[in-house]
Amino acid sequence: MQSISPEIIFRGNNAWRKSLPQITKLTKSPLILGRGIHTNNLRNRIFNDLKNQNLNVTSANLEFDCCYEDISRVKNIILKNNNDSLIAAGGGKVLDSGKYIADFLNIPCITVPLSASTCAGWTALSNIYSKDGQFIKDVPLESCPKILVYDHKFIQTAPSRTLASGIADALAKWYESSITSSTIDDGLVQQAIQISRVLRDQLLIDGEKAFTSQFENNPSWRNTVEACGLTAGLVGGIGGEKCRTAAAHAIHNAITQIITPNKFLHGEIVGVGLLLQLRLEAMKNNNKLADQSIKQLLVLMKQLNLPTTIAQLGINVFENNNLEKIADFTCRDKSEIHFLPFEVHKKDIAEVIANFEQQKIKI
Ligand SMILES: [Zn+2]
């Protein structure tokens, strides 16, 4: 079974307003799930618009992350209220929690991404973290959301950092899926990889223009936010489980194990993981193009103010056994790193990271 996309997608300016008749048809007592205070105004608007449609609407907020504590608390609220749908309005963590809870309770999920930081509004997958943001596992879900509302006016209100993060995460699709899945003899997987290549090219062309002028009338901005929030999700939908993540996400998951005072966004960490994956490919798989890719990516990542080392994520790998901790988690048994077509050991990860952090490598 494969769920390729949400059943209905509303996109562009005023997508939210246009989606109201469809939402009203689907649900009578939705729960709106959110998190941060900076999205309060938008969630109030969503709340009031639904109330004006005579829906019996309630709301709840995540306290921490997409974690079991928040999930079970919100699940109980929904059971108590008897909500017949869940509207997840926020970033990746809110969308992932909403999808997970709705899937568990077997009620429809409506996703309303409030930034371009993620394709979580599209996919049938949730990433579970601890309360402190440490990655625990990916959970495949029964289906993609019922309705996805990708309102450009909403996305525009998000901090520019979320767009940069979404670009880094979407770029990783090509570099990860092409190395793990290019030998899979399945037409849809092959086509998903090709879409991820076109997606990367578009981000290389439009990413910086989108970042410097985040306005609806800038075609680069429109293309880029849709690439990050929609096309990246489509790649996951068509490619399914076989169109896999690889080292960039495995290293991301490992980095999140180290708790730091400042939280970084998913794509910001994945971007660093991507550079390390390419370095690993150059070193262990003799990939001569990998250093070229690093050069190309570094130019864009600097333009987007993205971190390019683990130190810039607030972690000194040479302290507190951090290097060992990251290498251990990256190479644990169920890690995606083992989808790479060559063997990777802890010492390889430790070596690549140590060299990278000391910038001994000449790129
Ligand atoms: Zn990701």
Provide a descriptive summary of the structure in words.
It is a single chain. The chain is of the alpha/beta class and 363 residues long. Helices cover 52% and strands 11% of the residues. It has helices spanning 15-26, 40-51, 68-81, 92-105, 152-156, 160-181, 187-212, 219-239, 247-255, 266-284, 290-303, 322-330, 346-357, and strands at 8-12, 30-34, 58-61, 85-90, 109-113, 125-129, 135-140, 147-151. The strands form two sheets. It has a six-stranded parallel β-sheet with strand order 1-8-5-4-2-3, with helices on both faces. Strand 2, helix 2 and strand 3 (58-61) form a beta-alpha-beta unit. Helix 6 (160-181) runs parallel beside helix 8 (219-239) and helix 9 packs across helix 12. The longest helix is centred in the middle third of the chain and has 26 residues, at 187-212. It is globular. It starts with 7 loop residues before the first strand and ends in a 6-residue tail after the last helix. Bound molecules: zinc ion. The site of zinc ion has 4 residues, from helix 10.
